[in-house]
């Protein structure tokens, strides 16, 4: 059996023992209409409207999109244009909180009778992948193909981030409940809870909890980045290979993030949609690194100040992990559904790129078995046929090649640019 | 607050840089160079210094002339200088060594685009150019530990063997107590350097092992003495420091093995059938030229890739 390449990273899980802290309610939130993959929502409220906690404030008919809800009660002050970290433009609803946190009457336990009503309720929850990608949960849980295995992604392979880990430690019953809920609703026989080996306590706990349940299998993933990548986790927990152009469902599996599963369970108990999230705040500019639970729409500035960040020294802000996270251009941007971590870094030097020395490190680390050095060459001369032969489309942008490159070449970035050259069928 | 830096992921990096790699190669070359100086005297040191200095000057000058960024700090020119010096007889006139450096740095390396772009190993090519241009000076050997630069023409072990002379013992070959180029004689020191690089994960042992293995096997089959043949001449220097050059050898392990086997076979053919006593340099140069084709045939297998449809287009 083929062993997939990977790299050893310093785990830097400084916050793994930090109990999640509720952040005080901000005086103002700004909630973007695009926090998921898919078309942005249209705002359902206008300036001057009063809103309550859990009230739907944005929705759309677009297939992949999920609605947006308010996490505070208060008054809408403005509906503005907003540019996301991805560069997309959408509307954002600004709400001044009244501090009462009145819960909306829309919030009630969803009535679920069959798969169809379950999927509909999942959509209404506003749920999307909480691991960072933001893929709509109701689409993921409703494939045409026959599914026999549900994989719960608890790899959390990026350095620093412990948000999923704290979910496992603090809410293990919600996770098991969520797994059983999804399994029974979709008629899936087997669930595999895949945890990276650097989280022994979580592995021990869940092995104990699931010891009398032979439909939940606890899988220990090797401690090498990127275990959380979808194709890698599927291969390492089931041995199945998702081939070029296929979806996980084509191999009979669904992969879902562990925090998403925990959230789904709570939603079906309480009816409270996705309006808060746990995120790890860390990085060397942060005075008190910790896990916080914040209302979606809270500005990063407030989160950083809450964690005693030396604001003057911050050179770089990363939403997510250091390997695949996004640079945040502005501290006043809000926490969104997919914000699993906020890293404030004060030591960052712009790297100087030098010539490729053909050392082959990028080739040895690529989990997909690609040859980034050759892709780099082919991209330079825009050789599209060669790029196709080199299978650049299979790059998942894990960043391992850029990380190891001694010449500081931005290989992962080049791969993404090269993908754009290949015409879509 | 500062302006935030915005850049694509990843935002973290490894500490191994090009300069680190080159520095490690220099460290790995030091034992063999030290033995060379001990065996052949102070001129080994000055010849090496001349090579390093002229390589750096040529590197700086040609980059400057071509209006390209100065790459002197990546230390690759220093590595080329040391390896080239180690491939020269200690008695070689300095001006010939400078010509070798010119060939290595300007013609082979910079004219093809600089570091990582050269098709052949600069030091090997320079050695061959010098060998065909100045065959007399390039085969002017002195006895080890004799330090008499006028009492020349102590033949190398391979010449002695082919002419049926009094061959040195395995121990002398292993420790470098024999005639030859100033850095190639001591198999032990070269082995230490090579293993150091392998331990630091700078080089893979695939090419050296298959190179030395193929040569030993073929020599044994042909009735020769395999141990003598791998210890004598430039096999260890070539296998560990030149058949592992990044730019001019294949990237994948499969490719490295093919490369090493090819080097071993060609070295054997030249030594056994050719009129030259030594074939390491030519074998590596020939395999350098084949490298692009080896690379084409030994690419990695992409995870989950579907084979290209045969009838397409």
Structural class of chain B: mainly alpha
* Helix content range of chain B: 55-70%
Please trace the helix and strand order of chain B, writing H or E for each element. HHHHHHHHHHHHH
Q: What's the structural domain tally of chain B? A: 1
Largest interface, with counts of residues having CB < 8 Å to the other chain, equals: A-B, 70 and 39 residues
User: What is the number of E strands of chain B?
Assistant: 0
Order of helices and strands of chain A: EEEEEEEEHHEHHEHEHEHEEHEEEHHHHH
Terminal CA distance of chain A = 32 Å
Contiguous low-pLDDT stretches of chain B (5 residues minimum) are: 309-313
Strand content of chain A: 15-25%
Overall pLDDT of chain B: 91
Strand fraction of chain B? under 5%
Extended strand count of chain A: 17
- Figure out the total of helices of chain A: 13
Shape of chain A: globular
- From the N-terminal CA to the C-terminal CA of chain B, the straight-line distance is 57 Å
User: What is the helix content of chain A?
Assistant: 25-40%
- The CATH topology name of the domain at 115-270 in chain A reads Rossmann fold
> What is the annotated CATH architecture of the domain at 115-270 in chain A?
3-Layer(aba) Sandwich
State Rg of chain A.
Answer: 21 Å
Describe what you observe in this structure:
Chain A is an alpha/beta fold and 425 residues long. Among the domains of chain A are: 115-270, NADH-ubiquinone oxidoreductase 51kDa subunit (Rossmann fold, 3-Layer(aba) Sandwich); 361-421, no CATH class. Helix content of chain A is 26%, strand content 20%. Chain A has 13 helices and 17 strands. In chain A, the strands form four sheets. In chain A, strands 1-14-13-17-15-16 form a six-stranded mixed sheet, with helices on both faces. In chain A, helix 4 (172-186) crosses helix 7. With 313 residues, chain B is an all-alpha fold. Chain B has a single domain, classed as Ammonium transporter fold. Chain B contains 13 helices and no strands. Chain B has helices at 18-40, 42-65, 76-86, 94-109, 122-133, 157-163, 170-175, 187-199, 206-221, 226-231, 235-242, 253-273, 280-297. At the A-B interface, strand 15, strand 16, helix 12 and helix 13 of A face helix 1 of B.
């Amino acid at each position: 059996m083929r062993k997939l390449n990977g790299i050893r990273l310093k785990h830097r899980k400084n916050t793994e023992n930090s109990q999640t802290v509720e952040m005080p309610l901000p005086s103002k939130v700004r909630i973007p209409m695009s926090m998921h993959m898919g078309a942005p929502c249209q705002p359902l409220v206008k300036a001057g409207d009063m809103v309550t906690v859990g009230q739907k404030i944005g929705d759309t008919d677009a297939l992949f999109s999920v609605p947006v809800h308010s996490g505070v009660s208060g008054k809408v002050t403005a509906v503005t244009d907003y540019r996301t970290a991805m560069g997309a433009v959408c509307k954002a609803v600004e709400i001044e909180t009244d501090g009462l946190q009145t819960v909306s009457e829309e919030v009630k336990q969803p009535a679920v009778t069959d798969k169809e009503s379950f999927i509909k309720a999942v959509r209404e929850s506003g749920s999307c992948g909480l691991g960072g990608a933001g893929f709509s949960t109701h689409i993921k849980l409703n494939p045409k193909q026959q599914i026999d295995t549900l994989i719960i992604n608890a790899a959390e392979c990026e350095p620093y981030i412990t948000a999923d880990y704290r979910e496992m430690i603090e809410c293990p019953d919600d996770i098991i409940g969520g797994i059983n809920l999804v399994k029974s609703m979709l008629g899936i026989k087997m669930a595999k809870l895949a945890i990276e080996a650097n989280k022994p306590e979580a592995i021990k706990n869940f092995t104990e909890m699931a010891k009398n349940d032979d439909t939940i299998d606890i899988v220990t993933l090797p401690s090498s980045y990127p275990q959380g990548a979808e194709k890698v986790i599927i291969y390492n927990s089931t041995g199945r290979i998702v081939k070029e152009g296929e979806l996980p469902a084509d191999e009979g599996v669904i992969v879902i993030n562990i925090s998403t599963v925990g959230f789904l369970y709570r939603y079906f108990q309480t009816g409270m949609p996705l309006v808060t999230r746990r995120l790890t705040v860390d990085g060397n500019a942060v005075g008190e690194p910790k896990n916080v639970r914040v209302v979606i729409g809270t500005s990063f500035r407030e989160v950083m100040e809450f964690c005693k960040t030396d604001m003057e020294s911050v050179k770089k802000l990363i939403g997510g992990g250091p390997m695949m996270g996004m640079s945040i251009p502005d501290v006043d941007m809000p926490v969104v559904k997919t914000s699993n971590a906020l890293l404030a870094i004060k030591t960052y030097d712009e790297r100087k790129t030098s010539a490729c020395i053909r050392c082959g490190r990028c080739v040895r680390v690529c989990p997909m078995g690609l040859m980034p050095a050759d892709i780099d060459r082919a991209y330079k001369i825009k050789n599209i046929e060669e790029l196709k032969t080199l299978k650049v489309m299979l790059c998942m942008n894990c960043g391992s090649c850029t990380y190891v490159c001694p010449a500081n070449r931005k290989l992962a970035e080049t791969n993404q640019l090269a993908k754009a050259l290949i015409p879509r069928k | 607050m500062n302006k935030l830096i915005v850049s694509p992921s990843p935002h973290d990096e490894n500490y191994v840089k090009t300069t680190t790699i080159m520095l490690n190669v220099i460290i790995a070359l030091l034992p063999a160079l030290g033995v060379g100086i001990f065996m052949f005297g102070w001129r080994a040191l000055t010849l090496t210094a001349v090579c390093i200095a002229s390589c750096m000057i040529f590197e700086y000058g040609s980059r400057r002339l071509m209006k390209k960024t100065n790459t002197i700090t990546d230390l690759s020119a220093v590595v080329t200088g040391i390896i080239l010096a180690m491939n020269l007889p200690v008695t070689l006139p300095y001006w010939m060594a400078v010509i070798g450096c010119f060939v290595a740095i300007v013609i082979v390396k910079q004219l093809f685009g600089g570091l990582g772009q050269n098709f052949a190993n600069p030091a090997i090519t320079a050695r061959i150019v010098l060998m065909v241009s100045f065959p007399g000076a390039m085969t002017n050997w002195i006895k080890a530990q004799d330090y008499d630069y006028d009492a020349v023409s102590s033949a190398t072990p391979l010449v002695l063997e082919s002419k049926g002379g009094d061959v040195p013992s395995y121990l002398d070959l292993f420790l470098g107590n024999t005639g030859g180029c100033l850095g190639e004689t001591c198999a032990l020191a070269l082995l230490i350097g090579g293993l150091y690089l392998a331990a630091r994960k700078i080089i893979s042992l695939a090419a050296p092992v298959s190179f030395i293995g193929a040569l030993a096997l073929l020599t044994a089959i042909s009735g020769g003495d395999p141990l003598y043949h791998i210890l004598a001449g430039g096999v260890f220097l070539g296998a560990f420091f030149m058949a592992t050059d990044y730019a001019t050898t294949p990237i994948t392990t499969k490719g490295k093995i093919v490369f090493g086997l090819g080097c071993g076979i060609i070295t054997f053919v030249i030594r056994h059938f050719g009129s030259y006593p030594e074939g390491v340099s030519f074998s590596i140069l020939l395999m350098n030229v084949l490298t692009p084709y080896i690379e084409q045939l030994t690419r990695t297998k992409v995870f989950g890739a579907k084979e290209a449809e045969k009838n397409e287009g």
